[in-house]
Amino acid sequence: MSERYDVAIVGSGPAGLSAAINCKIRNKNIILFGNENLSNKVSKAPKINNYLGIPGIKGEELKEAFKKHIDSMDISITPERINAIYAIGDYFALMVNEKMYEAKSVILATGMEYGKALKGEEEFLGKGVGYCATCDAPLYKGKKVAIIAHNKKEEEEANFVKELAETVYYIPMYKDIENLREDIIVVRENPVEIIGNDMVRSLKLSNTTLEVDGVFVLKDSISPDQLMPGLKITDGHVEVDRQMATNLKGCFAAGDCTGKPYQYIKSSGEGLVAALNAVSYLNNKK
């Protein structure tokens, strides 16, 4: 049986890090998913003037302070992308390719860096559209698939899919391809729409249309409502109450994904609130 964590935190920006710190202080067994380099959004800020107590700090300096803090508390980041989260009875299953993590509660701190869904993407999710190529590749043995990749690290997933699929079209949303199999067809056009009836039938690009049986949309982060079935979204953000609780019992959210203002100090505070209430939720279950 896999280890079941008390709290799984998805996101390594200010909200996720704050949540991790405050759960750890209260002796909860946590797992933190995200980028080991923390938030690129923070590091790119030339100067931050509204973070209480440290006026005029550069984004890179604030990021280093965050890193020093979590290191001092022996908090590590698991650099894996969560593809789906399911509520299963009194715990949550977090899916990462072929692996599954379990947690008694979840804090979503995904930020707002995920792109807008492609036309048809949500309509055909689970009907030929997927976010994990290595998970679903066996479904497309001998078939045609398209892979929309936002990062060169997805080349490895595409190579794996080609071992099973007859034809793989690779649509890179970045410049330089490094390690892609020669028998994968690279198409440098922008995706426009995923088309089908009961299932995916084709992918419309800016100049051509590809007849395919499936489309994998591989991006660094997935919008919360696509990540977690049943999650209530209002105006493009996760709906939460004053306790940062979502409509799903045991699931909390914090930071930019919960709405404006998109400010580091606001995200940090919400991470604290989400952590305190996740801990309270766990303690009340005992």
TrEMBL record:
Keyword Nucleus appears in the UniProt entry: no
InterPro entries found in the cross-reference section: FAD/NAD-bd_sf, FAD/NAD-binding_dom, Ferredoxin-NADP_redctase_2
Signal peptide segment: none
Top-level lineage group: Bacteria
Domain FAD/NAD(P)-binding: 5-148, 186-271
Single annotated GO MF: oxidoreductase activity
Keyword Transport: no
Keywords of the record: Flavoprotein, Oxidoreductase
PANTHER family for this protein: THIOREDOXIN REDUCTASE 1-RELATED-RELATED (PTHR48105)
Official protein name in the record: Thioredoxin reductase (NADPH)
Source organism (scientific name): Clostridium cadaveris
